[in-house]
Amino acid sequence: MKIERIVLRQLRMPLVHFFETSFSRTYERNIIIVEVVSEGVSGWGEITAGEHPFYNEEWTAAAWTIAHDYVAPRVAGKALSSAEDVYPLTKHIRGHNMARGGVEAAVWDLQARLHGNPLWKEIGGGARQEIPCGVSIGIQNSIEELIGKIETELAAGYQRIKMKMKPGWDVDVIRRVRERFPKTPLMADANSAYTLGDAGLLKQLDAFGLTMIEQPLAHDDIIDHAELQAQLVTPICLDECIRTAHHAEQAIRLKAGRIVNIKLGRIGGFGEAKRLHDVCQAAGIPVWCGGMLEAGIGRAHNIALATLPNFTMPGDVSASKRYWKRDIIEPEVETTAHGTIVVRDEPGFGYAIDHDFMRHVTVREETVSANAA
Fold first, then answer.
1. Does residue 360 form part of some domain?
2. For residue 268, what are the domain limits?
3. Candidate from 10-24, 143-157, 202-216 with smallest mean pLDDT
4. Which residue of the set 164, 183, 274, 325 is catalytic?
5. Residue 262, domain member (yes or no)
6. Which is catalytic among the residues 2, 149, 183, 263?
7. Is residue 137 left, alpha or beta, with left meaning phi > 0 and alpha meaning psi from -120 to 50?
8. 91 is catalytic
9. Catalytic residue at 78?
10. 53, 3 Cβ separation under 8 angstroms
């Protein structure tokens, strides 16, 4: 397939409810959508960077520049034998996995459509036809508000609750939640808010039977996580610090965690995500699919990813309506009464684009053509 042009669109979409982590509170998303075109067929991807460089070094404005000036020109005009070819074409760009991965994901979607396959089949998935779903609930204004939100999500059928935590919103909050929900699978996500000096505080969480504590220490650390994991009964799940399959190999050797969260953007696309998946599977380390407040395209890509066999734990892939009054795909992503998403068999990522609404929320659009590249 020869990539004739790549279209970048920046969308501005307000969230139904603010989402707060240990580092910021988000009210609206500025999302970059990637369209790649070949033989009159379009493939679609999503660059999952946040609005600020707080989760990692990427953010929307910088991701636009990297995608437009560096990634797209290295892909537009190229005749690719496979979507796997995109990763090596952009590998010498240091970091910026989300910008690179959004373009690569769009090429995978294009390839699936040209072959008439659903995306999950194209990437080698299909281990399950329903994806078990959990939810991620941000820091709230009060514990009572948090408990109310958990009750709502459990009533909707979600199978696991993830709570964001930070210093001052941790042990007492989780104790109250566990008392109210003694049998619910619970996990806590710190987004790198603690240091090894907080090991004593984090050990208190062992009393609450959490499924995992996600990324408690620095975003780029593996060694301190290994020391902390040796002190905890609760499994540590590694997120921000795992950006390549090789990072996972290092973490496994050091016993830095017992679970890995795979986020498509953080890893740089489907190719490296599959390699990371295989490394963890060979080592007996379960993985699950994390979310980045994606719109429908990124959400659908996560569904495809989660059909790979080692995604054995409920991920953060939930219904569109939890985040958006209106999504950019038709139909919107929905969950069943028992907290799953049914995998679709349509070609590509499985949903139609709501072009009218996408145009309505687009604030910027630029095209990189084969000639320009």
1. yes
2. 122-342
3. 10-24
4. 164
5. yes
6. 263
7. beta
8. no
9. no
10. no
